[in-house]
What we know:
The structure holds two protein chains of two kinds. By secondary structure, chain A is an all-alpha fold. Chain A has one domain. Chain A contains eleven helices and no strands. Chain B has a single domain (53-76, 88-251), classed as 3-Layer(aba) Sandwich (Rossmann fold), CATH 3.40.50. Chain B has nine helices and ten strands. Chain B has a six-stranded mixed beta sheet, with helices on both faces. A four-stranded antiparallel beta sheet of chain B has the order 4-1-2-10, covered by helices on one side. In chain B, a hairpin with a 2-residue loop joins strand 8 and strand 9 (223-229). In chain B, helix 3 (105-115) packs across helix 5. The interface between A and B is large, with 44 and 48 residues. The structure holds adenosine-5'-diphosphate and magnesium ion.
Amino acid sequence: MARPGARQPAMRRSNLGFVVSELVLKDFKVRYRNMSLGVFWSLLNPLTMVALLTFVFTKIFRSQIPYYPLYVLCGLIPYNFFTLAWLTATTSVSENPALVKKVRMPTALLPLVSVLSNTIHLFIQLLLILALVAWYGIPVTWHYAWLPLIWGLELVFIYGLGLATSSLHVVVRDVRYVVESVNLVLFWLVPIFYSFAMVPPEFRSLYEFNPVAALVLATQNVILEHRSPRPVLVWKMTLVAGVFLLAGGWIFARLRKRFYRYL
Amino acid sequence: MQEAIRIENVSVIYRPKGSRKLLRQYLQDRLTGRRDEGFYALHEVTLRVGRGEGLAVVGANGAGKSTLLAVLAGLLEPDEGAVQVDGRLSTLMELGSGFHPDLNGWENLRLYAAILGMARAEVKQRAEAIVDFAELHGYMEQPLRTFSSGMVLRLAFAVAVHADCDVLLIDEILAVGDAAFQKKCHRRLMELRDRGCTLVCVSHISAMLESLCGRGLWLHHGRAVMDASYQEVAAAYTSFMNGTDRHLWDALPAAPVRTAGA
Lengths: 263, 262
Ligand SMILES: Nc1ncnc2c1ncn2[C@@H]1O[C@H](COP(=O)(O)OP(=O)(O)O)[C@@H](O)[C@H]1O
Ligand SMILES: [Mg+2]
């Protein structure tokens, strides 16, 4: 086996933040610079879905959930964020062979950049939620302080997941399609258009282990119910995020050695 | 002399059919324990390069030159052997990795510098010098897609040679821009070398290569067949490439790797 000797790291630790911020900035500029309507496009998709779901579930199914459009947004925006961030993280390594094979940038930064780029996108959409909150005249409480923590946990979870799938995607080409299918199934396992109360009690505890569902629940708690998420929910999110980060990091570290040969 | 690079019996095996697979194929190969056949892209290469030395790596297409640089850069872990590189290493293997046509000159400069491992403060400090070097004043506000391809390469080269390094690996990109710019690049590389930076250049035989590199390494089918002064290697390699004894070398093909179960 190869025994690499004392080798200086590819990049000084203090410079990692710089390269990540430059790459995120690049994604952001490229995405928005050439759009005449710019930010509007990132709002179009959730707005259409909200209108559609609101019509179907208030006019056809006569749902009793109050502030239905806001309720839908609290589920749809986290869900959309998760699916996009995970998918772009998954393809981040295989779509950047030049950054993997020609320069010494740490490759584990690539899925991180994908997740963070989508986070900027997410902030724009969160403004939509705040706009609706203001429009309905719903009070903003101190419980909002929970939002950075639970969203932070979600980012850790997605990064861990992205480390795993991005490296697997280099080895097995169809991982991308698996990710897309899982995302489709997931739509039904997140309380977007139905409420958590409709989930049979015997499944609720398990249901909460899904970090996307947990994120939606916590967001709903804070914004619509003016209360903190239950501690057990936050603990579950922390546990799942930690496990995924460790497992994803481990898988990535094992498969990284193949990147040069496979890309 | 202090050594900057030391590699010992390094071998790299490529399995062309063993790369990215569909899940079905992957599982099938996993279950049947089939190993894809491969060949040695590098075969027991041993090499030492002193600090501040210039090494030219020559060889036909597919000889394993880029593979050797990837091993030195730590981008590719060899199947066998040990690699040791001292000091800060920088690569010039492809100009402008990460460049984006919609970003302007300044933005691409910062991005590329960051990718090459420079610090934010260093970039700020050196940006003017980089643009001076690339002779692109007045263009930097334009998006990169409006640059000519020569201008893009000049920008990339200028950024890359302003990164600090103790070892610089260069893969076939010495011929950048017009004659005047090439002269400038050449001068800059000489300067770096005289400051103690070790150069490993993959390139075609040229006067420029000769002045940069005192030593030559000739790779053939993954084997180091000659490691001597630049003049000797250049003479032997040139006469081989033009000569009539080429067929003799075909008796020395890339070594295949025995596949398990075959
Ligand atoms: N990732 C790879 N997988 C399989 N074979 C490869 C890969 N990269 C290069 N090769 C093969 O290995 C040999 C050496 O490649 P390379 O080092 O790029 O040669 P050079 O730079 O000297 O032209 C070539 O035959 C090439 O086709
Ligand atoms: Mg090559």
